[in-house]
Amino acid sequence: MARTNIEIDDELTAEVMRRFGVTTKKAAVDLALRRLVGAPLTREFLLGLEGIGWAGDLDELRSEQPGELG
To answer: What is the superkingdom listed in this entry's lineage (predicted)?
Structure first.
């Protein structure tokens, strides 16, 4: 992994951190890049999202037909 110094939007970074429960800017940028390129997220990262406030029902979402959500 390389170290890179870049200027990034603090408000966007903070929003990623808030929405996804990550605690560092590095983790927020890594998450955003992985989502953008479609790389699979690690099991550890996904387990780290547990308890961030999402109260949905995955079984219900899985049973929905496309177009029924909303």
So the answer is: Bacteria
